[in-house]
């Protein structure tokens, strides 16, 4: 396969991939019902359970064709009983997405809302659980890519255990990037996707489920035909196949990405991402940029940068200038603050981050922006 031009993606997914992951897309055409492909699916499912820290006797992986939102949709519509309810910790765009999905299905839910980028108030969560004993589930986003916030998973899991509620964790942008164990008490459903920290291609999402909890969901009337989690699980258990047509080539690419994850090792991947982040933070500081979050709330995966107060600054022109040089940055989602976002996940190394910082300075100066950048006092 001829080498394609390498792009440095600093958006929060899809991430930059290796040439070998790209090459894995080039496989002979195959019917996804063939035993050969079923074996690939089974291996991928088993590997994903292991990567999430699950046990094969107590956990299973349900694969879904779609983006991470498909996994969010499938879990909420499939596991919340009509007589129960879900508390959604909402402190970013993807917590809000959980809320929007729950509202779409008219689920019984409680929107525990906090300002974007703020850690959740555990006492407020405790109060809701005390006042509503029928609550059966708690949903949270581990890493909020709208801000770069890493939510306090262990503390929330401990509270879920205290109240014996089932915990749903969106680990879409954190699994494989930071230490994470699905065996954390009360985590019954852990969501992720192929195109972020595992460095595969977009198009495949999954849920790592505690089998006992998933089996109990079978009594809940189906709210979706295509994204019913239990029915997808039963189909896997019966014949090892996805219930509906899978993204075949994306599965092969993910299998290769998993092999590369194992070769690097989870600890080294975390260290590499952290080195990327530390290099990025140091470079941004040198250029005068400020970040949305203080360091204690900042993940080592993504940084939200406050835009400078300079009349020559323009995000679109900055983006275009960097894109011409092979770097992709991403607009912010904040409503009250003008921001842009820089992820340092994917098949990137420190040299890529240094090259980006040099290009960032170059483009800023071309635009006539004062460097170091300035902010209003």
Describe the protein.
- This protein has 377 residues and is α/β, with parallel strands linked by helices.
- The protein has two domains: 25-263, Aspartate Aminotransferase, domain 2; 265-367, Aspartate Aminotransferase, domain 1, CATH 3.90.1150.10.
- It contains twelve helices and 15 strands.
- It has helices spanning 19-23, 35-51, 68-79, 93-104, 122-131, 153-163, 211-216, 229-239, 248-264, 266-286, 315-324, 350-367, and strands spanning 8-9, 59-65, 86-90, 109-113, 137-141, 143-144, 149-150, 166-170, 187-193, 204-210, 290-291, 302-306, 327-328, 330-331, 339-343.
- Helix 3 (68-79) packs across helix 4 (93-104), helix 10 (266-286) runs parallel beside helix 12 (350-367) and helix 11 crosses helix 12.
**Strand content range:** 15-25%
Query: How many structural domains?
Result: 2
Low-confidence stretches: none
Mean of residue pLDDT?
95
Features:
4-stranded antiparallel sheet; about 40% helix; Aspartate Aminotransferase, domain 2; alpha/beta; Aspartate Aminotransferase, domain 1; 15 strands; 7-stranded mixed sheet; about 375 residues; globular; 12 helices
